[in-house]
C-alpha cells in the first residue's frame, strides 16, 4: 500500500476512533428522551441494539490491549450515564411528590451472567426491594428499588411521574441528572482521547 493509501486508511481509523462512541452516546440520550417524553415506551430500547453493536464492534479496534480494555469500559459507562442523565433530568422536571405508607416490602434476588468481548463470563447478583404502597391521592401503588429506604409500616416521601412513563422513587433519590451527565462526558472524552492517541501513535511509524 502506498503512502496515499496509508493516509486514507489512517484517516478512516481516526474517524472511527473519535466519532463512533459520541454517536452511541447521542443515541442513548435520544432513546432515553423518547422513553420519557413520548408514548413509544419500551420500543425506545431497540436503540440499544445498534448502540451495543457500536460498542462491541469497536471494542478491539485499538491496537494496544490496555487501551482496548480501558476504552471499552469508559465507552460503556459514557453510554449508560447518558441514558441516566436524560431520564433523571426529565423526571425531575415533571415529578410530583406524595407521602406513602409502606404496606409491605419484598426482597428479591436475581442472578445473571454476562460474557464480554473476550469470551469471559461473569456472574452477577442483584438485590431488589418491591414496595407495596398506600399513597395520599392513590398514586403510586408500588415501586421497585435497589436499596431499602424504609420498612413495613413506615412512611416514605415518594416522587412519581404523573404521566406514568418513568418509575417512581423516593424524593431523596431525585436528581437533575447533572452528575450522570458529567460522568458521561468525562468518560466520552477519555474514550475519544485514548482511541485517537492510539491511532495517532501508529502514524508516527511511517
Describe what this molecule looks like in 3D.
The chain is built from four helices and five strands. Helix 3 packs antiparallel against helix 4 (178-203). The chain is 49% helix and 23% strand. It is α+β, with helices and mostly antiparallel strands and 206 residues long. It has a five-stranded antiparallel beta sheet, with no helix packed on it. The termini are close together.
List the helices and strands and how they pair.
Elements: H1 3-37, H2 48-57, H3 65-94, E1 96-115, E2 121-135, E3 142-145, E4 155-160, E5 169-170, H4 178-203
Antiparallel strand pairs: 1-2, 1-4, 2-3, 4-5
Kindly list the characteristics that best describe this protein.
single chain, 206 residues, alpha+beta, five-stranded antiparallel sheet, elongated, transmembrane helix
**Radius of gyration (Å):** 21 Å
Strand order of the largest sheet: 3-2-1-4-5
Secondary-structure class: alpha+beta
Oligomer: single chain
Number of DSSP helices? 4
Q: Hey, roughly how much beta strand do the residues contain?
A: 15-25%
What's the short version?
By secondary structure, the protein is an alpha+beta fold. It is built from four helices and five strands; from the N terminus they run αααβββββα.
Amino acid at each position: 500500500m502506498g503512502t496515499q493509501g496509508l493516509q486514507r486508511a489512517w484517516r478512516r481509523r481516526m474517524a472511527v476512533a473519535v466519532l463512533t462512541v459520541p454517536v452511541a452516546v447521542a443515541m442513548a440520550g435520544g432513546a432515553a428522551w423518547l422513553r420519557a417524553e413520548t408514548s413509544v415506551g419500551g420500543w425506545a430500547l431497540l436503540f440499544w441494539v445498534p448502540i451495543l453493536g457500536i460498542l462491541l464492534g469497536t471494542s478491539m479496534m485499538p491496537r494496544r490491549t490496555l487501551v482496548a480494555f480501558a476504552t471499552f469500559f469508559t465507552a460503556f459507562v459514557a453510554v449508560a450515564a447518558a441514558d441516566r442523565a436524560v431520564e433523571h433530568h426529565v423526571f425531575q422536571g415533571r415529578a410530583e411528590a406524595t407521602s406513602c405508607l409502606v404496606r409491605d416490602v419484598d426482597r428479591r434476588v436475581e442472578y445473571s451472567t454476562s460474557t464480554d468481548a473476550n469470551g469471559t463470563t461473569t456472574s452477577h447478583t442483584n438485590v431488589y426491594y418491591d414496595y407495596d404502597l398506600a399513597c395520599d391521592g392513590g398514586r403510586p401503588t408500588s415501586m421497585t428499588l435497589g436499596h431499602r429506604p424504609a420498612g413495613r409500616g413506615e412512611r416514605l416521601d415518594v416522587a412519581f411521574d404523573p404521566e406514568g412513563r418513568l418509575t417512581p422513587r423516593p424524593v431523596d433519590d431525585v436528581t437533575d441528572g447533572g452528575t450522570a451527565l458529567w460522568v458521561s462526558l468525562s468518560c466520552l472524552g477519555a474514550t475519544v482521547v485514548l482511541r485517537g492517541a492510539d491511532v495517532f501513535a501508529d502514524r508516527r511509524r511511517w
